[in-house]
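Need residues for this backbone.
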């Protein structure tokens, strides 16, 4: 029930103690502000990490060879491992029922591409049609490689956006001929990559063409594999981890590598990396909540102290009320009402200011690991609940003390 007299009392108390009320409210508003901003930064870090993983297929397993570091079965350490087409084919044969998308690459670094009077040094990568999905490549013109290009060793090429700008300027490159080490390739597509300009300085050609035209024989430099989707993230991580272990064992066996030699075969599992990062993000989020809650507690303690002072100042008034028949619950309600009001108003101001800051400044923040820090509606509702609870806690103990004052003692108070 709305009690006008009680509201008059609250506003009268605030008017008499403007500075005290302002400083008390400032401590609560600061706590809420810090909590919301920290949570926004935590969400921005999660967005930034998610964007990093969007550069490639989310469940990508990436394999590349290294150099042996241990003697094994009479073979000296220091052997450079070279994967072959047969490795790729055997993986498809053994694990084809588990695999979703697959590709291999044969890489040629620093190849000179010529078009008219323009030329530049770029990475030319032979690969398979599925490479587009595995590397999250987006076409801006033309098409990507297809099975016909692969099967017939066609001299077709898809170039990155940076190459298009360097060699063709404003000219449409589709259908034009680019020369690579004396071999003519027709440009059939142009792509962009979320990984940035570095990823767009590559030209992609059919794997079979790259191996024949540039002395690759049947060599393979990289393997890209994704597994069939699972029901949830944890199951996907478990399946991916198990497959990575099986793949590591298989490749080491084929290339006569010691089982505990971690330098010969390198396997990067993006799901395992994602799980580690997301676990770290959750820990940071909990830490931010802890810091914010502690700051709010500091504000609540300030409010509680102020309410104790108010109870002390109004001891005689409380005694008169009780002598006239006021019930303890009404005394508690009076103190709680004021405490919750001051805390809620100050907290809402801190909440609104922090949300406004994130709304206008957040989209401008775009670093490698922080992107668009925001706070969702659920978090805002939880913050409101915290405000109400904080106000009630801040006022409860002073209110309980006020309710226990004996009228005869309160009336003697000076």
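Answer:
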């Amino acid at each position: 029930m709305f009690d006008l007299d009680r509201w008059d009392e609250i506003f009268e108390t605030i008017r008499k103690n403007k500075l005290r009320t302002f400083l008390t409210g400032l401590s609560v508003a600061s706590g809420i502000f810090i909590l919301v901003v920290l949570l926004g930064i935590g969400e921005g870090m999660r967005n930034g990490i998610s964007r990093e993983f969007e550069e490639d297929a989310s469940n990508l397993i990436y394999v590349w060879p290294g150099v042996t570091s241990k003697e094994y079965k009479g073979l000296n350490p220091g052997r450079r491992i070279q994967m072959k087409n047969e490795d790729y084919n055997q993986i498809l044969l053994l694990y084809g029922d588990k695999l979703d998308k697959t590709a291999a690459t044969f890489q040629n670094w620093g190849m000179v591409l010529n078009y008219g009077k323009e030329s530049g040094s770029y990475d030319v990568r032979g690969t398979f049609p599925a490479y587009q999905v595995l590397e999250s490549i987006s076409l801006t013109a033309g098409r990507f490689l297809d099975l016909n290009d692969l099967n017939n060793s066609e001299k077709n090429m898809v170039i990155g956006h940076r190459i298009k700008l360097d060699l063709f300027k404003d000219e449409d490159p589709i259908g034009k001929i680019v020369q690579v080490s004396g071999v003519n390739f027709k440009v059939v597509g142009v792509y962009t990559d979320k990984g940035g300009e570095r990823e767009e300085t590559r030209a992609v050609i059919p794997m079979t063409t790259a191996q024949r035209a540039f002395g690759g024989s049947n060599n393979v430099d990289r393997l890209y594999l994704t597994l069939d989707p699972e029901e949830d993230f944890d199951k996907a991580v478990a399946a991916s981890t198990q497959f990575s272990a099986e793949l590591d064992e298989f490749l080491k066996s084929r290339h006569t590598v010691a089982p505990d030699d971690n330098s010969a075969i390198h396997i990067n599992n993006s799901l395992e990396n994602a799980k580690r990062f997301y676990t770290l993000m959750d820990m940071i989020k909990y830490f931010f909540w802890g810091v914010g809650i502690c700051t709010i507690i500091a504000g609540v303690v300030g409010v509680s102290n102020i309410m104790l002072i108010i109870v002390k100042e109004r001891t005689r008034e409380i005694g008169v009320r009780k002598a006239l028949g006021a019930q303890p619950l009404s005394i508690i309600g009076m103190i709680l009402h004021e405490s919750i009001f001051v805390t809620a108003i100050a907290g809402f101001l801190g909440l609104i200011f922090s949300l406004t800051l994130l709304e206008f400044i957040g989209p401008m923040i775009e670093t490698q690991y922080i992107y668009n820090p925001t706070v969702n509606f659920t978090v805002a509702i939880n913050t409101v609940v915290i405000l109400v609870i904080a106000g009630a806690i801040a006022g409860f103990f002073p209110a309980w003390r006020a309710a226990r004052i004996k009228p005869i003692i309160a009336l003697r108070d000076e």
